[in-house]
Amino acid sequence: MHDDLVQKIKRDPNYHQLVKSRSRFGWALTALMMLVYYGYILLIAFDKEFLAKKTGDGVMTWGMPIGLFVIVFTVLITGVYVRRANSRYDELTQAIHEKVQA
Question: Which residues contact 92 (CB under 8 A, 6 or more apart)?
Fold first, then answer.
């Protein structure tokens, strides 16, 4: 019975669309995150002078807001993924579930 259910799911075109869409979007967000994170790490490694420059008359340097941007960017792309998962991916999952139950 379990193998039959798995085969029904695997034959469903909505399942293939879900897997393809989720994988493509996940890899795109992963590439963006890696670009931002490793860009920051490379900036630390090769241009410490820029990060140590003060942004104004105070004590804050460029490293602080750029580091904060990396953290905020991580939270934002997580939110983007969750929003898409709760709308498009849940709809496809529900369609698959309904078709398999029939």
Answer: 14, 15, 17, 18, 21
Q: What is the DSSP letter of 62?
A: T
Helix (H, G, I), strand (E, B) or coil at 93: helix
Considering only CA atoms, give the Rg of the chain. Answer: 22
Total count of residues recorded for the chain: 102
Instruction: Give the closest residue to 22 by CA, choosing from 70, 87, 74.
Output: 87
Q: Between the CA of residue 62 and those of 21, 38, 55, what are the distances in Å?
A: 37, 17, 6
Contact call for residues 16 and 91 (beta carbons, < 8 A)? no
Residue 42 has pLDDT above 90, yes or no: yes
What interhelical angle do 13-46 and 63-84 show, nearest 10?
180
* pTM exceeding the 0.90 threshold for the entire prediction: no
